[in-house]
Write a structure and sequence with these properties.
about 450 residues, alpha/beta, N-utilizing Substance Protein B Homolog, Chain A, Alpha-Beta Plaits, 4 domains, nine-stranded mixed β-sheet, four-stranded antiparallel β-sheet, 21 helices, globular
Length: about 450
């Protein structure tokens, strides 16, 4: 007897979700692998919807599943748990998926994974779930309403206020905007010819947001005329400014380094990263003879004061990027934020030693947590007399003069993203990832 068919999109989504749940792999990287790339455009879109949607609503899905289990406290095997989540997401959030397809193929995925004795339980739970009303917003707390960890949302409410925390959570539950950077004068016309529809960026003249179309399969992308890059990331690199000798301390995957090279056409640039694999990938994607690529751990590097510009974009918890990396909410806890802080202070302290007199360093992260941002700068600069933090308002004025900012973007930056001389973009307040940046100068 022929085994029941599983749609390619569901099979691919199941494998990605299983890997995210059992390893440290990231969903955004797994969604760009060949296993997904060979699928049809329709199936690729469905895989993305299934993976990111299931991860975004996982906390709520798990609660619903536990309620329907005969033994709610039982520990489920990862393939069983993954199949239940995938089926539950389709039943609760996707109107166009027939219930029989969501249930039947989830059961088949469990069987294929070797958990054949759990197939009946999966079938029973999903059938019960299919009879329940669809989930609707309006729970008693932001964390419950938007399927975020309670401790995380409580922090955001404390730091940013309830309405901003709500905006962040809501943003994280929607498909993340796709932003690009135009690097060739013919890029926009070429994209339009292929049916890609764009709208202006929020801040930058070189940024565009994709409204419709697959830019990753466009001629402009293949030719290197555009780069897919969050606008907050672009903005950080623009604020770094100019120099003749430039160091990027944690460079991979290379989007910010590429902008430094674009804006500093004669500069010698050194790009460091602790991961050889990531640096090799960056070398392929950002090929420039003026960039020296060096595998080095930024926490242990010994620098001479020879650089007039340093970008110190540190590894972090990534809580500003949950919109495109939803699994971060399960991988970060309060102790992890403290561990990140300690590493970030070491990186910044080492990097500061590389600044020549009069040189400037831009410290940045994609975290929303003050411990990884303001607190790092304060601790690294404590008892150091020859380094000082300077307000970023002057750099915004420079970007205005260079016409790197749109008029509307400049006004919005000043009103909503500059605070105490630092940059802070917030998901939901701005249509980009959450970034922090502070400028330090050596006297």
């Amino acid at each position: 007897m022929t085994a029941p068919r599983v749609a390619p999109a569901r099979a691919a989504a199941f494998e990605i979700l299983l890997k995210v749940g059992t390893t440290d792999a990231h969903s955004d990287e797994l969604l760009r692998t060949r296993a997904v790339d060979v699928l049809s455009a329709q199936d690729r879109a469905l895989v993305t919807t299934l993976v990111l949607g299931t991860l975004r609503w996982q906390l709520r899905l798990d609660e619903q599943i536990r309620f329907l289990l005969t033994r709610p406290e039982a520990k489920l095997a990862p393939p069983v748990q993954t199949a239940l989540r995938l089926g539950a997401y389709q039943l609760q959030y996707l109107d166009r998926i027939p219930a029989h397809a969501a249930i039947g193929e989830s059961v088949e995925l469990v069987k294929r994974s070797g958990e054949i004795f759990a197939a009946g339980m999966v079938n029973a739970v999903l059938r019960k779930l299919a009879q329940l009303p669809r989930t609707s917003p309006g729970s008693e707390s932001l964390a419950d309403e938007f399927a975020h960890p309670g401790w995380m949302v409580e922090r955001w409410e404390r730091f940013y206020g309830t309405e901003t925390a709500r905006a962040i959570c809501r943003f994280n539950q929607e498909p993340a905007p796709v932003s690009i950077r135009l690097t060739h004068r013919d890029a926009q016309r070429a994209l339009a010819d292929e049916g890609v529809e764009l709208t202006g960026g929020e801040f930058l003249t070189a940024a565009r947001r994709v409204v419709k179309g697959d830019v990753a399969r466009s001629r402009a992308f293949d030719n290197g005329w555009i780069r897919i890059q969050d606008e907050g990331s672009q903005l950080v690199a623009e604020l770094a400014g100019h120099g003749a000798r430039i160091l990027d301390t944690c460079a991979a995957p290379g989007g910010k380094t590429a902008i430094l090279a674009e804006r500093n056409l004669t500069a010698a640039i050194t790009a460091l990263d602790a991961s050889k694999r990531r640096l090799d990938a960056m070398r392929r994607n950002v090929s420039n003879p003026r960039i020296e690529y060096r595998v080095q751990d930024a926490t242990a590097i010994e620098l001479k004061p020879e650089y007039d510009l340093i970008l110190c974009d540190v590894p972090c918890s990534g809580t500003g990027t949950i919109g495109r990396n939803p699994e971060i909410r399960f991988r970060v806890d309060a102790p992890e934020i403290d561990r990140q802080h300690e590493r970030q202070v070491r990186i910044l302290t080492r990097a500061l030693e590389g600044l020549a007199p009069g040189g400037r360093l831009l410290y940045s992260s994609c975290s929303l947590e003050p411990e990884e941002n303001e607190a790092v700068v304060t601790e690294a600069l404590a008892h150091k007399n020859c380094w000082t933090r300077v307000p970023l308002e002057e750099e915004v004025a420079r970007l205005e003069r260079e016409e790197a900012l749109t008029a509307q973007g400049s006004a919005k930056l000043r009103v909503s993203a500059l605070r105490d001389g630092c940059l802070r973009t917030l998901p939901g307040v701005h249509t980009c990832d959450g970034f922090f940046a502070a400028l330090i100068v050596r006297r």
